[in-house]
Structure formats: structure tokens, C-alpha cells
């Protein structure tokens, strides 16, 4: 094979495990680092530069200069390069290639899957959000599309077409936008046909300590009245209350219940992007520990706080879904700017409420609607360009984690398997397709992404056989209904249960105290004794030994069951 490369390095050793390594040639191209093994098999390892998180050079030793490549999808590659000069050259080149400074340098602008112009345009039309809002059954006598954001005049981080209450006048719409952070006024995200309740989203109000806006108050009143069967609505602030109160000093904050008629304010307590970034890094550090004990690993898992944060996001979705489906009450969701925690809460609630979003195409539509079109800052959050590291945070990672956690509780309710989630996670970071480039629709339009890049969704759809869950049943009660997951104290429950396990690895003898073994999935499901109708199921996956080298959705509590994955009950 011929590789178009900047340079190549011979006799590089790739260390797979402490006892296994491969010797080969390292090639650096404009888009990939390629390792080709010096054997008859000529095994190739391709690393996309967009996926590289950092490159670390360790002190040289008698064997050569070690180089560690850590990727955003949690792969770690360890190389040993004989000559120090070659190692420095690879380090400098790879560092620059993995940190593009302009959008034009991203892989999606050079990626060419051999589609003509007509097929490319058709691919971008695979997801139709107009058809999606039609599918929801929105009553046109209560809701309509406003022209207020035509050409992004009102809010440049929102889509150009917005569903708002039909009773809200243009003046109220504009006034409400002026009273909301970054102009992100309350608009419709999801309509529940069965109860007539809606999920709306916005950013925080610019209320400070005493400011108010009659237009914004009328907008919320219009949302509440768009649900004829309810006399009030919830306003869900996904932030911790102390954080929301601190924003008042900056002239922002949350709704004053004395000013807004018939609202009930509810704080959820999802932490900000900085806390989440640090939490994920702590968890990754735990995964890189060399031969940790079980207690060290579990302590590190708990200390990272990751599962606590996942629980908070799930709790937000559960509260919203319960309000909409059981109480028949509309909900307005916001955080600070309405593009991180708000997207998480709205999309988790939608997955719980609507079986369509638990299908392969439905999840694509949901991501396109609640994340892409409503201005989640993909390029900032996932470091597509070399920018401010404080803007980076695993917001979408957490949503995918939440979906995976729900899949463990309701294995028959989801059409897709975890491989589908892994692919989504990889492409959010890879920059191979244009869907997740930029931070909002206006930026994508200005960059002409639909003309210059390709869409991910048709590619995933064509390969949907690989992502289909064999347990999915269209007629199953889980598939048809609203999901009601259990999130109460699952984290503490697991840590207590782990202490009850006695394992004799030499004799291959396993004693599980009060556990239920499900041989079908090689998973250990721990029932919560307090649960009456539904059980929280937690998986101890086999063949994962204290490492997070690949995407594991962070929900796995790691335990080495056996060498070959075969365990007697």
C-alpha cells in the first residue's frame, strides 16, 4: 500500500499489554496516524487525529523513547520509538495535527465517500424536523411556527423556525427574548399527544434580584394556557439552587414565583460543565491505575462523582416525564444558557416519554432536534478546534451514559444496542461528518456545511443491522409505554453489595450472596430490595480488568468474573 504521509518512522514498537507488543512502521498523514505491523498479516492501526486528546512523551530509557497517545474515545496507544529525534518529531507533528485552528482543517472537509452532489443533498434531508413536529401531533390551534427568528434575527443560537404558543403576540415573543440570556426565549421542544402537556426550553431570565418582564410573564402564561387541562406549569431549573442564586448577582437568576402566575419552580441540581469535566478526568485516571485493588478502584469510582452526576441527569428526566405523562402538566426547562443541562434534561425526558426516540432513527431525530438545532456547542464542548480548555465538557457523553443506563433497566425497550451509542460517541469527536461541526445552525449555514461535508445519519442507517438490539420487541409493554426507571440510591446499594461477594479465582468458585445471575447477557443484576414493581439492574461486565481503554459508558462497575466468560450459576 502507498500512504500519502508527512514522514514515517521504522521499527516502532506498539505496546499492547505489559507482555504483548508489536513492531512496525509508523506513518503520519494529514488526517491519520497509521501503525503497520511488520508481519505477514500487515495488521494496521489507524488513529484519526481529530480523536487525539493529548500526546505525552515519557523520559527515554535503554529501549527507546516512550510516547503515549490518549484519545477522546478513551483509546490509549503506547509507542516506543528507538531514536529520540524521531520521537520528538512525531510528538511535534501529532500535537499540531490534533489541534486544528480553523474549521477548514477538520477531516470532514477532506473526507470523500464518493457521493455525487444529488446524493449528498438527499443525505442531508434524511432527518426532517418539520416532519418530526408533525409526528408529535401538535394542535395547530394552540401552537404555531413563528417567523420572529427568520434569518436568526431574534436568537442566533436557535433554529430559524420555532414553535411558540399561538396566543403569544409578536411583541411578547420579542420581549421575552430580550429578557432571556442570549435571547433564548421559551419555545416548544416536545409535545405529548396523550395529555396535551408540553416540554419547552429556554435560558435563564435576566431577573437579577428584582427585575421583571411583563412580556416574559405573558409568554409563560401562554405556554400554560396551551395545555387546557392544567391550571399551572412547572419551571425546572436544572442547576443547583445555590448556583442559580449566585447568578442573580450578575443580573440573571431564575423566575420569581410572585411575578409569574401559576408556576411551580423546581431545582434539580445538575452541576456545571467544569465540575463534569473534572469528574470525567478523575474517572479516566482511575482507569489508568496500574493493577489497583478492588477497594482502590471502587473508591476512585466513588470519588470521581461520575455516577452521582448521571443520577442527577436521570432524576431531571424522570421528574419532567412524570409531570408530563402522569400529572398532565407542561414544563419549562432551563439552566444558565440553555444549551447543556437543558438539552440533557429535555432529551432524557423525551426518551422516557416517547417510544419513537428509543428506536434507531428516533434517537437520531432526537439528537438533531434537541442538541444540533437548539445550539449545543459541539465544537467548544468536544474540542474540535484548539480553543479554551475550560469550554470542554462531556455533556453529550453523559446523555449517552443515561441512555445506556436505561437500556440496562429496560433491555426490551430499545431498538438499538450499545454499539450504536459507541458509534455516536465516536463521531461526535471524530469530525468525519459535518453534523456536529460548529456550535449552532447559523454557523453551519455560514460555513455551507451541507455543500462541503457529508451527513452521518444515512451512513448509520445503512448499517443499522449492526446496531439492532436482538431483545427489542415492538409489542412489548416496555416498548409501547412510558419508562419509569428507578434511580433511588443505586450507587450506595452497589458498593454495599460488592462487599458481600466472595471469589476464589484459583478454584473458579463463585459465591454470590442474594444475587440473581442472568446467563443470557453475562451480567450480574442486583435487585433493590426496596423496589416493588421495577428493579434497578446494574451490570458487572466480564473481561474488563480495572481498565477503561475503550468506551464503557462509565456505568460499569468493574469486576473480573473469569478468563473465558463462562461462569457456572
UniProtKB/TrEMBL annotation:
> Sorted alphabetically, which InterPro entries does this protein's record hold?
Myotubularin, Myotubularin-like_Pase_dom, PH-GRAM_MTMR6-9, PH-like_dom_sf, Prot-tyrosine_phosphatase-like, Tyr_Pase_AS, Tyr_Pase_cat
Tell me the keywords, alphabetical order.
Lipid metabolism
Q: Which Pfam families match?
A: Myotub-related, PH-GRAM_MTMR6-like
Q: Which residues form the Myotubularin phosphatase domain?
A: 123-502
- Show the active-site residues: 335
Q: Which residues bind substrate?
A: 272-273, 335-341
* PROSITE patterns in UniProt: PPASE_MYOTUBULARIN, TYR_PHOSPHATASE_1
- Cell inner membrane as a keyword of this entry, yes or no, is no
Q: Which GO cellular component terms, listed alphabetically, does the Swiss-Prot or TrEMBL entry include? A: cytoplasm
Which SUPFAM superfamilies does the record match to this protein?
(Phosphotyrosine protein) phosphatases II (SSF52799), PH domain-like (SSF50729)
Q: Name one GO biological process term.
A: phosphatidylinositol dephosphorylation
Question: Which GO MF terms does the UniProt record name?
Answer: phosphatidylinositol-3,5-bisphosphate phosphatase activity; phosphatidylinositol-3-phosphate phosphatase activity
Family of the protein in this entry: Belongs to the protein-tyrosine phosphatase family. Non-receptor class myotubularin subfamily.
What is this protein called in UniProt? Myotubularin related protein 7b
Amino acid at each position: 500500500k502507498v500512504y500519502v504521509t508527512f514522514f514515517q518512522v521504522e521499527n516502532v514498537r506498539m505496546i499492547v499489554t505489559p507482555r504483548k507488543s508489536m513492531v512496525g512502521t509508523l506513518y503520519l498523514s494529514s488526517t491519520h496516524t497509521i501503525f503497520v505491523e511488520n508481519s505477514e498479516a500487515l495488521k494496521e492501526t489507524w488513529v484519526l487525529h481529530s480523536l487525539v486528546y493529548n500526546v505525552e512523551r515519557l523520559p527515554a530509557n535503554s529501549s527507546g523513547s516512550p510516547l503515549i497517545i490518549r484519545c477522546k474515545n478513551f483509546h490509549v496507544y503506547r509507542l516506543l520509538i528507538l531514536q529520540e529525534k524521531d520521537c520528538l518529531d512525531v510528538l511535534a507533528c501529532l500535537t499540531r495535527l490534533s489541534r486544528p485552528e480553523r474549521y477548514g482543517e477538520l477531516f470532514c472537509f477532506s473526507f470523500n465517500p464518493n457521493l455525487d452532489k444529488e446524493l449528498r443533498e438527499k443525505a442531508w434531508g434524511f432527518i426532517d424536523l418539520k416532519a418530526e413536529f408533525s409526528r408529535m401531533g401538535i394542535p395547530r390551534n394552540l401552537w404555531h411556527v413563528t417567523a420572529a427568528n427568520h434569518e436568526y434575527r431574534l436568537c442566533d443560537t436557535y433554529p430559524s423556525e420555532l414553535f411558540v404558543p399561538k396566543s403569544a403576540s409578536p411583541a411578547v415573543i420579542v420581549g421575552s427574548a430580550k429578557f432571556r440570556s442570549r435571547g433564548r426565549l421559551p419555545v416548544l421542544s416536545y409535545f405529548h399527544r396523550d395529555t396535551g402537556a408540553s416540554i419547552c426550553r429556554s435560558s435563564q431570565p435576566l431577573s437579577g434580584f428584582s427585575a421583571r418582564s411583563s412580556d416574559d410573564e405573558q409568554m409563560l402564561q401562554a405556554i400554560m394556557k396551551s395545555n387546557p387541562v392544567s391550571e399551572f406549569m412547572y419551571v425546572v431549573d436544572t442547576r443547583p439552587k445555590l448556583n442559580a442564586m449566585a447568578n442573580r448577582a450578575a443580573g440573571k437568576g431564575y423566575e420569581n414565583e410572585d411575578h409569574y402566575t401559576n408556576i411551580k419552580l423546581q431545582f434539580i441540581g445538575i452541576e456545571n460543565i467544569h465540575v463534569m469535566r473534572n469528574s470525567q478526568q478523575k474517572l479516566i485516571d482511575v482507569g489508568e491505575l496500574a493493577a489497583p485493588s478492588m477497594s482502590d478502584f471502587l473508591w476512585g469510582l466513588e470519588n470521581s462523582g461520575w455516577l452521582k452526576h448521571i443520577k442527577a441527569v436521570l432524576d431531571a428526566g424522570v421528574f419532567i416525564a412524570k409531570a408530563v405523562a402522569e400529572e398532565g402538566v407542561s414544563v419549562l426547562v432551563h439552566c444558565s444558557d440553555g444549551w447543556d443541562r437543558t438539552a440533557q434534561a429535555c432529551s432524557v425526558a423525551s426518551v422516557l416519554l416517547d417510544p419513537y426516540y428509543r428506536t434507531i432513527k428516533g434517537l437520531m431525530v432526537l439528537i438533531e432536534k434537541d442538541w444540533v438545532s437548539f445550539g449545543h456547542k459541539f465544537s467548544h464542548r468536544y474540542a474540535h478546534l484548539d480553543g479554551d480548555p475550560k469550554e470542554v465538557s462531556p455533556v453529550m457523553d453523559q446523555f449517552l451514559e443515561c441512555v445506556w443506563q436505561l437500556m440496562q433497566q429496560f433491555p426490551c425497550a430499545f431498538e438499538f444496542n450499545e454499539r450504536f451509542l459507541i458509534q455516536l460517541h465516536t463521531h461526535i469527536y471524530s469530525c468525519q461528518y459535518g453534523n456536529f461541526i460548529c456550535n449552532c445552525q447559523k454557523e453551519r449555514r455560514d460555513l455551507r456545511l451541507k455543500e462541503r461535508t457529508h451527513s452521518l445519519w444515512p451512513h448509520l442507517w445503512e448499517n443499522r443491522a449492526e446496531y439492532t438490539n436482538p431483545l427489542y420487541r415492538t409489542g412489548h409493554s416496555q416498548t409501547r409505554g412510558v419508562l419509569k426507571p428507578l434511580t433511588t440510591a443505586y450507587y450506595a446499594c452497589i458498593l454495599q453489595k460488592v462487599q458481600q461477594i466472595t471469589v476464589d479465582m484459583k478454584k473458579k468458585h463463585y459465591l454470590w450472596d442474594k444475587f440473581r445471575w442472568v446467563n443470557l447477557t453475562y451480567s450480574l443484576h442486583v435487585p433493590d430490595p426496596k423496589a416493588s414493581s421495577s428493579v434497578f439492574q446494574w451490570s458487572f461486565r466480564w473481561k474488563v480488568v480495572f481498565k477503561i481503554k475503550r468506551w464503557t459508558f462509565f456505568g460499569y462497575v468493574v469486576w473480573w468474573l473469569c478468563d473465558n466468560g463462562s461462569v457456572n450459576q
